[in-house]
C-alpha cells in the first residue's frame, strides 16, 4: 500500500473540526516516526476531484469515491456505515477506531446510571420550568450493590465495566464466548442473554451492529428484564427492536432507559421516546470528547508507520 496523500473528509465535522485532525496528522508526517510515509495531509469533501491525489481517507461516513482508494479509516468503532463486501471486492483496506472510545463512553454510561438513580435528569427538567420539586422519599436510590449487565465486552464494554465497578455495582457481562473478564462477576454467552439480564438493575448495550446483533434485544429480552430495570444503549439503534422498547416502557415492563442511539437519527420529533417517563435521550454523542481527534490521529499515525514498514494497519476490518 502506498500512502503519499491522506485526506480528512468533511464528514468528521459532526464530531470535531476536520482541520484539527489535518494539522495533527501533518505534524506527525514531519516526525522521524512517519518520515516518507505520508507526504501530505489535506481536507477533502468526498468528491472525486478532491480525492484525485489521495491514497487514503479518514472519515465518518462512506462515500462512493472511497472505493477507488487504497485505505479508508473510520473515526468510529462501528463500521456498519460501510459496504464491507464491496470494499473486499475493490481491494480497499478498511480500518476503524476501536479502542479510543472506552473512557468517554464509560463515563457517559456512569453519568446515565447516576442520573437515573439520583434523579438528576428530573432536576434538570424542573430547572427549565423554574420548578422546585423534590423527589418522594423512596424515589432516589444509590447504585452501590446494584447489578449491571454489560452486553459486549470489547473496548466499549471494558470502559463501561471499569466505571460501573468503580461505582460499586456488581457487573455481569455477555459476549460470544464465556471467557472470564477482570471486574466481571459472571460472563454469559449471547444464547444466555435473557438469563443474564433477568436480575440486572441496568442492562447496558455495547455491541457493534452486525447481522448477528441486529434486533438482539426484542420483546422477549425486554420481558425478561426486571420491571425496575433500566436499558442503557450506547451501541447502535438497530441492536434494539425500538417499537418493542416503546411498548415495554409504556406498559411498565421496565422502569426506563438512557438511549444515545436510535433506529432513525436524528430521532424524529414525533417519536414517543421523547416524552416517556424516566427515559434520557441523548443525540448519539456518548463518545464525544475534545480529545477525539487526538485519539483518532494516534491510531492513524501508528497505521501509517506500520504500513511504511510493510505491516498491516491498526484495527483492520477488511
TrEMBL record:
Residues 111-286 form the D-isomer specific 2-hydroxyacid dehydrogenase NAD-binding domain. The keyword NAD applies. Residues 54-317 form the D-isomer specific 2-hydroxyacid dehydrogenase catalytic domain. Keywords: NAD, Oxidoreductase. Pfam families: 2-Hacid_dh, 2-Hacid_dh_C. GO terms for molecular function: NAD binding; oxidoreductase activity, acting on the CH-OH group of donors, NAD or NADP as acceptor. InterPro entries: D-isomer_2_OHA_DH_cat_dom, D-isomer_DH_NAD-bd, Dhydh_Halo, NAD(P)-bd_dom_sf. The keyword NAD applies. Belongs to the D-isomer specific 2-hydroxyacid dehydrogenase family. PANTHER family: 2-HACID_DH_C DOMAIN-CONTAINING PROTEIN (PTHR43333), D-ISOMER SPECIFIC 2-HYDROXYACID DEHYDROGENASE NAD-BINDING DOMAIN-CONTAINING PROTEIN (PTHR43333:SF1). This is 2-D-hydroxyacid dehydrogenase. It comes from Halosimplex carlsbadense 2-9-1.
Amino acid at each position: 500500500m502506498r500512502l503519499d496523500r491522506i485526506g480528512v473528509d468533511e464528514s468528521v465535522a459532526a464530531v470535531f473540526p476536520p482541520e484539527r485532525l489535518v494539522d495533527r496528522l501533518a505534524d506527525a508526517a514531519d516526525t522521524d516516526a512517519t518520515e516518507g510515509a505520508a507526504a501530505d495531509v489535506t481536507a477533502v469533501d468526498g468528491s472525486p476531484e478532491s480525492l484525485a491525489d489521495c491514497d487514503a481517507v479518514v472519515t465518518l461516513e462512506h462515500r462512493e469515491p472511497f472505493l477507488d482508494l487504497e485505505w479508508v479509516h473510520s473515526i468510529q468503532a462501528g463500521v456498519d456505515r460501510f459496504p464491507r463486501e464491496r470494499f473486499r471486492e475493490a481491494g480497499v483496506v478498511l480500518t476503524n477506531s476501536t479502542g479510543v472510545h472506552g473512557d468517554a463512553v464509560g463515563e457517559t454510561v456512569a453519568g446515565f446510571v447516576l442520573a437515573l438513580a439520583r434523579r438528576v435528569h428530573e432536576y434538570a427538567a424542573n430547572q427549565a420550568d423554574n420548578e422546585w420539586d423534590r423527589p418522594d422519599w423512596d424515589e432516589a436510590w444509590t447504585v452501590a450493590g446494584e447489578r449491571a449487565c454489560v452486553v459486549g465486552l470489547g473496548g466499549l464494554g471494558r470502559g463501561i465495566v471499569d466505571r460501573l465497578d468503580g461505582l460499586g455495582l456488581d457487573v455481569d457481562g455477555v459476549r460470544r464466548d464465556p471467557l472470564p473478564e477482570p471486574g466481571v462477576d459472571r460472563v454469559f454467552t449471547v444464547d444466555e442473554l435473557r438469563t443474564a439480564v433477568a436480575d440486572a438493575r441496568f442492562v447496558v448495550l455495547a455491541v457493534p451492529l452486525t447481522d448477528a446483533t441486529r434486533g438482539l434485544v426484542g420483546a422477549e429480552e425486554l420481558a425478561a428484564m426486571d420491571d425496575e430495570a433500566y436499558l442503557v444503549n450506547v451501541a447502535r439503534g438497530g441492536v434494539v427492536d425500538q417499537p418493542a422498547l416503546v411498548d415495554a416502557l409504556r406498559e411498565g415492563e421496565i422502569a426506563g432507559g438512557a438511549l444515545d442511539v436510535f433506529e432513525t437519527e436524528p430521532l424524529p420529533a414525533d417519536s414517543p421516546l421523547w416524552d416517556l417517563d424516566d427515559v434520557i435521550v441523548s443525540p448519539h454523542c456518548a463518545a464525544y470528547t475534545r480529545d477525539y481527534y487526538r485519539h483518532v490521529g494516534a491510531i492513524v499515525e501508528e497505521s501509517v508507520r506500520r504500513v511504511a514498514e510493510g505491516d498491516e494497519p491498526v484495527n483492520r476490518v477488511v
